[in-house]
Task: structure prediction
Amino acid sequence: MVQIYLLCLVQQGKIRIHLSSKSALVDSFIDYSNIGDIDFSVKVLDALTEVQKMAKPENWEILSPYASKLLGEEISATHDDAKIAEYRTKLRELFNQEGKEAVRVLNKAKSLFEALNAANPYEKEVQQIATLFITDIESGNDINLLLYGLQEALGYGAFSKNIAAQAEVDDLANRLKNYRDIQQFLNSEADLKTAYAYCTKIPAEISDLQSVYAAQAEVASKLSNLKPYIDSDVKLKTELIGQFPPQPGEVGTVGALMQEYATVYVALHDSVMNKLDTCRQEIETLLNCNDLQALKILEGITALQPKVYDRTQQELTHLSASIFACKDPSRISVEKSLKSEPVHQCGLTFENYSAHLADAELAVEAARALVEETIERKIEVFQNPSVQDRLQQGVSDPLIASLLECKTLLEIRNYLVSTSLKDPGIVGVVNRYLKRIAVKTVKISDFKPSSTTVQKDQIRAIAQEFQAYLEEQLSSIEDDDDTLPILQIE
Result:
């Protein structure tokens, strides 16, 4: 019964009971501050050693009005040690929680205002309150440590003068509000960064964006003076940020600006992607065109060696892949990206879309030229007089006779393409008469003249060097008396 009575006095803050090491508790005593956290057992009760009367908390009357503002509750004058103990516990809990949060608030506020390229109107207040909350009030007399913390962080004289000043108490309330307002303001970090992006990343002097610039100017004006929106979260949410999509009649907000911009950007994105897809489809059509399908067959003719079909396919595929593409061009994806910045994740902008379209057109033109040049360079061998002479041996064959009737390169091409697709057997027929033709491709760029700067009187000598180069290439072709070596110059 005595032990229970003593513990009741502890709970009321009247006494402190010291413990022996047998208690196995972290603390070597029990008082009002830790009694609620102890799981009592016989072992703890048997470890009770001596009783110490608790002295009235010194300087509590001085700290009390400041503590009231810190805790956000009215603290009436009292000499009840137990009641005072409750407030002191609340203060320790507050500082333990806010000390960790203060570092985050300081760093996040610094980062946000730098990102917005704006000054924090409450930078001093945030620094002061954060410094106060970081104060260690656990390592000694919490009342005196807190009063000293108020002096160090805010310059208050309560610690040195032993008196609370109403002006300081009111000032603390104001600075706490500024700190809490900034803390609340930081919750809108993503929306504020989006607002800044829409005010700085939308290109100027774009005719399609004339309707956007007025809405942009309103938001930019508000970002230039953030204090009213820090002071009022309601004003921040309704007058600056708004909603996306905006409510009917909503103007001057980030939501309204985003909606105005999205209307134009989504239309641009759809239009550009459709045009780029058309360019890609045209190259895909070339990849499967009759000319290339016929080339694949005709490359079985010895006179058309070496084969270039696979290389041509690869080059066309590369040209198709070089065209700008969007991995997810859906409207949902575009609008999702526009919620954070005025550009889709693919990177298409009002400034670069023309270049992407121009590059796509060039890719298509290059693909067309590649197919034309590849087919014609292969087919032109049939205009060679020596080749035609050999084909004359098979004039009795209808396929060869029809081929010999073709006079122009276009006629030869059209005949070989259409015939090979209908009757691939033409390859064997032509090879019967051209099997001894050996074609070697040489590049003019491989020719290295003795001099790269040529005067008029040196032209003949350079021409002779080139002649010798071609003769050397011809002689490198392994042949016999029946083989007709031919060079194809690139």
Residues 81-115 form the longest helix (35 residues). The chain has 22 helices and five strands.
